[in-house]
């Protein structure tokens, strides 16, 4: 890893004095603690290369780092550098993107993985888009229709689109077991679209749920068909 100290070592968050007006002593202790923190650590950027022990792929990584200062070393308070990764190139797949999955869904998820460490809200919004694309692949209706099946339009002539929730309810007719799962992902995606501070653990939950749905829709049926074919061959041979 290579490190480069930041020019401006002052971090306003280190000096937030919450409750300073109500407790001068507490405020002063916070400031003292922040000063000691600044003396012990040097805020830096880092860059490096990682190699996957499984596939051998080389990945570049950059991010923020806190490196022990000379003050820390002189006082024999040794610390390991703290690394906060922000970008990986190529992005690290947080779930496996199988060959059987639709390309449009895989591409959108890859974009989500790319910003997971630096912008969780953007990553979450892209997970939401990925389930829209999944519904497209499964040919779930996108437009509102009248009683005779014609697409409704606005006064300006634009097609009236169904909301994602409405599309998931249509999806439920054919795939009842997985509609509730897609609604959970949609909720996390909605939160990401409106809240820049989305919990990354919630986002990881969304990935895990979507991983299960994709496996059940695209991997399990293929395995089922293969086993069914083997079964037929065995029954034919020994009948």
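^ structure tokens above, recovered residues below v
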């Amino acid at each position: 890893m290579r490190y480069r100290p930041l020019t401006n070592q002052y971090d306003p968050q280190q000096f937030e004095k919450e409750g300073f007006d109500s407790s001068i002593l507490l405020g002063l202790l916070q400031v003292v603690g922040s000063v000691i923190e600044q003396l012990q650590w040097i805020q830096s950027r880092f860059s490096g290369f990682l190699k996957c022990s499984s596939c051998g792929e080389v990945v570049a990584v950059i991010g923020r780092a806190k490196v022990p200062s000379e003050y820390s070393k002189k006082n024999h308070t040794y610390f390991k550098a703290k690394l906060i990764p922000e970008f990986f190139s190529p992005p690290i797949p947080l779930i496996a993107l199988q060959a059987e999955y639709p390309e449009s869904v895989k591409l959108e998820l890859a974009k989500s993985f790319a910003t997971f460490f630096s912008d969780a809200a953007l990553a979450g919004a892209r997970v939401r888009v990925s389930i829209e694309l999944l519904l497209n692949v499964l040919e779930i209706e996108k437009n509102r229709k009248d009683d005779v099946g014609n697409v409704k339009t606005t006064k300006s002539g634009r097609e009236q689109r169904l909301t994602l929730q409405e599309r998931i309810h249509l999806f439920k007719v054919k795939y009842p077991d997985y509609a509730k799962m897609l609604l959970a992902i949609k909720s996390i995606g909605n939160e990401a679209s409106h809240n820049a501070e989305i919990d990354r653990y919630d986002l990881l939950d969304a990935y895990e749920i979507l991983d299960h749905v994709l496996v059940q829709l695209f991997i399990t049926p293929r395995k089922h068909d293969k086993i069914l074919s083997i079964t037929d061959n065995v029954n034919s041979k020994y009948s």
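The chain has two domains: 1-90, 92-231.
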